[in-house]
Specification:
By secondary structure, this protein is an alpha+beta fold. The chain folds into two domains: 20-147, Aminotransferase class 4, branched-chain amino acid transferase, N-terminal domain (D-amino Acid Aminotransferase, Chain A, domain 1, 2-Layer Sandwich), CATH 3.30.470.10; 155-313, D-amino Acid Aminotransferase, Chain A, domain 2. It is built from eight helices and 15 strands. The radius of gyration is 20 Å and the shape is globular. The model is unreliable at 1-24 (pLDDT under 50). Bound molecules: 4'-deoxy-4'-aminopyridoxal-5'-phosphate. 4'-deoxy-4'-aminopyridoxal-5'-phosphate binds at residues 65, 188, 214, 217-219, 238, 240-243, 276-279.
């Protein structure tokens, strides 16, 4: 359903120059961004990967999107664990240890003078030949980008977001498992295009059984009768780091929260709905397929959890 409330997708990396105020959480000096590639820093315009890299030729690689809040990498261990699990899932041996990758990320954040930012950590199969065979790629390539990101416009966090259910089916777990954060996001991209066609920024994908999986770059939660619910790992989701933080926060706040297989009908009859993701953080959803969720405004529990999340990431106490 088209809507007039500026629901168009706005996924973009914001250039440095957009942040001139040195008191802004996003401030860093107007210098070329430095990108870490295989142990060396390059200015952004010189940061290049070979056209023979199988990450580019075949989407053969894995990655993480990670936030830094107040100079500290948020949930660093969880992200590195997932990265190494993803690598194992595609039979790629990372050329650096988790400690080395953490150090590379910290160095990249420091050299770019960031306090709050978004990190993209990528490991590709590496440079090979034009055939598929990964054994022809002797060394995986690793790179780290630290930059700012704004996935959705700020007003959506206030008013809520409209989403659709996509016709694209989430990848079967016995094909490329959705638990692997691989460089192949075409399934998600097709769903994202479908969302844009419908004038909304996001789409929720159903799995091969027709049950709810996740959105193109976020996990999905609903609230019903005071209970928070989110699809299970077996339903075709990426095991989101933010999702787990949210589950833990609910526990801490004594809010009942369950991992549960959900049908599309559960979305339609939900009292509230919200999405979680590293880049998106927590964003309320107020319409799905044109149908209002609850009263079509961000729900009270959603608002409470958004606030709790923001306190948590900044190390402020939640009670
Ligand atoms: N699902 C998908 C498909 C994702 O790409 C992401 C990450 N953007 C998420 C869920 C959320 O995961 P996380 O909270 O770890 O960022």
């Amino acid at each position: 359903m088209p809507n007039a409330d500026c629901q168009m997708p706005n996924e973009m990396l914001i250039p440095n120059s957009a942040f001139g105020n040195r008191h802004s959480a996003f401030y860093h000096p107007p210098m070329p961004l430095k990108i870490w590639i295989d142990g060396k820093f390059y200015d952004k315009e010189d940061a290049k990967i070979s056209v023979y890299d199988h990450g580019l030729l075949y989407g053969d690689g894995v990655f993480e999107g990670i936030r830094v809040y107040r100079g500290k990498i948020f949930e660093c261990d969880a992200h590195l664990r997932r990265l190494f699990d993803s690598a194992r899932g595609i039979r790629l041996i990372p050329p650096r240890s988790p400690q080395q990758l953490k150090a590379a990320m910290e160095e990249t954040v420091r050299i770019n003078n960031f306090s709050d930012c978004y990190i993209r950590l990528v490991i590709t199969r590496g440079v090979g030949y034009l055939g598929l065979n990964p054994s022809k790629c002797p060394t995986p390539s690793v790179f780290v980008i630290a930059d700012t990101i704004e996935l959705y416009p700020p007003e959506m966090y206030e008013k809520g977001m409209y989403i659709i259910t996509s016709t694209v089916v989430r990848t079967h777990p016995n094909s490329l498992s959705p638990r692997i954060k691989s460089l192949n996001y075409l399934n998600n991209i097709l769903a994202k295009i479908e969302a844009a066609d419908a004038d909304v920024p996001e789409a929720v994908l159903l799995n091969q059984e027709g049950n709810v999986a996740e959105c193109t770059g976020d996990n999905i939660f609903i609230v019903r009768h005071g209970q928070v619910q989110t699809p299970t790992t077996a339903d075709g989701i990426l095991e989101g780091v933010t999702r787990q933080v949210m589950i833990d926060l609910c526990k801490k706040l004594s809010i009942p929260c369950f991992e549960k297989t959900l049908q599309r009908h559960d979305l339609y009859i939900a009292d509230e709905c919200f999405l979680t993701g590293t880049a998106a953080e927590v964003v309320p959803v107020t319409r799905i397929d044109g149908r209002p969720i609850g009263n079509a405004v961000p729900g009270s529990l959603t608002r409470r959890l958004m606030e709790a999340f923001h306190k948590h990431v900044r190390g402020e106490p939640n009670s």
